[in-house]
UniProtKB/TrEMBL annotation:
Protein name: ECF transporter S component
Keywords tagged on the record: Membrane, Transmembrane, Transmembrane helix
Organism encoding this protein: Streptomyces parvus
InterPro entries membership: ECF_substrate-spec_UCP037395
Cleaved signal peptide residues: none
Length: 294
């Protein structure tokens, strides 16, 4: 049964467009620009030769532009009412939770605990929130663990894509939704590894290797080389991440989804607030939501 906020209780939020936090058009454009920049940052080896986009200067440039774009997302959301103080507080809390969870896995054998919260939050609160949460979570985690380096912007982008795509998954309810999210979480483990490998593949191997990056090769041959590189170097590690995501979502998913949706109902992120005038005999105008508190 739906509550006054248009959300379902244990069954959960099922629509792709029914994210608890609305994405305003301007913020959607900024997120699309950030996503495009991320794709360029990862896939440039297929269109640009090494040296033309210097390895020493590209990561800091990407990092700076990324922070500006994330800031633009937040400002745009605030300007159009998409993120209010409650949504920003939720973003801060979940970023801190993810930053605290990440060291628990420590990445040993690919076991990482940061993704299942990101997947579930992106599902409940929407793709824009998932994108921003992916960036802020990895940024906070890097500061806590001392993991600041040229790899950090790529990790931020990778997690941003994971959170954003979770918010775009199709409708599902109950157990079917949990299974869908678990499968997506598993696939996102491979997706994250696939993207991160692109960040260092052009610089990590002897050019004489059969899986090394060679400028000027046709796209199909370059792609085959990269697929072979990805399988040879990180398939086992990515499998550990995929299994961790699947197990965490299957075990904790129902409870976490219910908690997130209950928080969305209580906070009423999408409920407009307006002043209803003065109470009889009172001196202070009272503000109320257009939705009931039931």
């Amino acid at each position: 049964m739906k509550n006054p906020d248009g959300l379902q209780d244990a069954g959960g939020l099922t629509g792709r467009s029914a994210g608890a936090i609305r994405i305003a058009p301007r913020a959607g454009i900024v997120i699309a620009m950030a996503a495009f920049l991320g794709l360029v940052a990862f896939f440039w080896p297929f269109v640009v030769a090494p040296g033309k986009l210097g390895a020493a200067y590209a990561p800091p440039l990407i990092f700076g532009v990324l922070l500006v774009l994330v800031l633009c997302v937040v400002i745009s959301e605030i300007a159009e009412g998409g993120i209010n103080s409650k949504a920003l507080a939720m973003l801060g809390v979940l970023s801190a939770v993810n930053a605290a969870l990440r060291p628990l896995g420590a990445g040993t054998a690919g076991i990482e605990t940061v993704f299942f919260v990101l997947v579930l939050a992106g599902r409940v609160y929407g793709p824009g929130f998932g994108f921003t949460l992916g960036c802020t979570s990895l940024f906070a985690s890097a500061l806590i663990t001392g993991g600041v380096g040229p790899w950090m912007p790529y990790q931020m982008f990778g997690c941003a894509f994971v959170g954003m795509l979770a918010g775009l998954l199709p409708r599902a309810t109950g157990r079917r939704e949990v299974v869908m999210l678990a499968v997506y979480g598993s696939l996102s483990g491979y997706l994250f590894g696939f993207l991160l490998n692109l960040s260092f593949w052009p610089f990590s191997l002897d050019p004489n290797s059969s899986i090394a990056y060679l400028p000027g090769l046709p796209f199909t041959e370059q792609w085959q080389r990269y697929l072979a590189f990805d399988v040879a170097t990180s398939l086992g590690w990515d499998t550990g991440r995929a299994v961790t995501n699947f197990v965490c979502v299957m075990l904790a998913g129902p409870a976490v989804l219910t908690t997130f949706r209950r928080a969305a109902r209580k906070a009423r992120f999408r409920a407009p607030v307006r002043f209803a005038g003065r109470e009889p005999g009172g001196d202070v105008p009272t503000a109320r939501s257009d939705r009931s508190d039931r």
